[in-house]
UniProtKB/TrEMBL annotation:
It comes from Wallemia mellicola. Pfam families: PhyH (PF05721). It comes from the Eukaryota. This is Phytanoyl-CoA dioxygenase family protein. Signal peptide: none annotated.
């Protein structure tokens, strides 16, 4: 499959017109409601400004750069789960993971938004490799299979993300390492050798390799145009507990409820529960990929 080749070779692939205009209107309405609930502190699960990686605590900062747990029944917005469990997304994700849809595992589904009080940037990072990793640790991480994929689906035009194409397979050069060895937010992403800014059009979906070197800028809105980018991941059952820390660090206890499991994507939910059990046996619960 062509998309899979791009993802493997470049570390990312952008697919045009994935969400049609009718669907986008409905998703935007739900997104706006979820964003308002979050900004008015009526939705406690959020990414807080000033903190890049989980765990996030509602008390930490009044401002937000993400809405967490879009499929949570308390949010009462079933449209998000319908999107996540839709045949078109599940088939595409399974193709990109390289497994049959029956092996696909339910994971994260969140939304990336912009702060309203002050701008915020992420540091250059790979999602599950420490900034301080030495060359050997980095090489080991870059040659270990992921058993999963992650995506950004833009409901509005979105230029927040910066990536270094092909870096998912390359150990950092000394200059790249110098700009990414600490969790300090990237003040000027363009300084990173090889970096490009990703410009997503509303309706496009981007899949990117968790090992690609990336960072993001979250300018204050307004004046910046809004961001509502659906951000999710899927795993492959055959990974066992390989993905457990990266996924469960987001706090998915609420997903264990069998009444949640009964909804759309039930088979994928069963795989998530299997990963939970395996993670417990492998002592991977309560751990985090990165700090900062
Ligand atoms: O804002 C983005 O698109 C990237 C977010 C990110 O890098 C992360 O959540 O680890
Ligand atoms: Fe990231």
């Amino acid at each position: 499959m062509e998309y899979k080749n791009y993802l493997e070779n470049d570390g990312y692939v952008i697919i045009d017109g994935f969400i049609d205009s009718q669907e986008i209107d409905k998703l935007r309405q739900a997104a706006n409601d979820a964003i308002n609930l979050t900004r008015t502190h009526n939705w406690p699960y959020r990414r807080v400004v000033g903190k890049q990686f989980p765990p996030w605590t509602d008390e930490d900062s009044p401002d937000s750069w993400g809405v967490q747990h879009l499929m949570h029944p308390d949010l009462k917005m079933p449209i998000f789960r319908q999107f996540y469990a839709s045949d078109k997304l599940v088939e595409l994700a399974a193709n990109l993971v390289g497994c049959s849809p029956e092996y696909l595992q339910m994971e994260l589904f969140n939304m990336l938004i912009l702060p309203t009080r002050s701008s915020f940037n992420l540091s250059w990072h790979r999602d599950h490799v420490l900034h301080s990793a030495d060359e050997q640790e980095e090489r080991d991480a870059l040659t270990t299979p992921h058993y999963g994929v992650q995506f950004n689906a833009a409901l509005y035009d979105d230029s927040c993300l910066w990536i270094v194409p092909k870096s998912h397979k390359m150990v950092r050069s000394p200059a790249q390492r110098a700009l990414s060895c600490e969790t300090k937010p990237a003040d000027n992403p363009a300084e990173m050798p090889g970096a490009i800014q990703v410009h997503l059009k509303a309706g496009q979906i981007l899949f990117y390799d968790a090992n690609i070197l990336h960072c993001a800028q979250y300018p204050c809105t307004p004046p910046s145009p809004p961001r509502a980018t659906l951000h999710g991941s899927y795993g492959d059952l055959r990974g066992g507990s390989h993905r457990a820390i990266g996924v469960l660090q987001h706090g998915l206890e609420w997903m264990k409820d069998p009444s949640f499991g009964d909804g759309p994507g039930h088979e994928m939910w069963e795989k998530l529960m299997a990963m939970y059990n395996q993670a417990k046996a492998d002592d991977k619960l309560g751990k985090y990929s990165l700090n900062g």
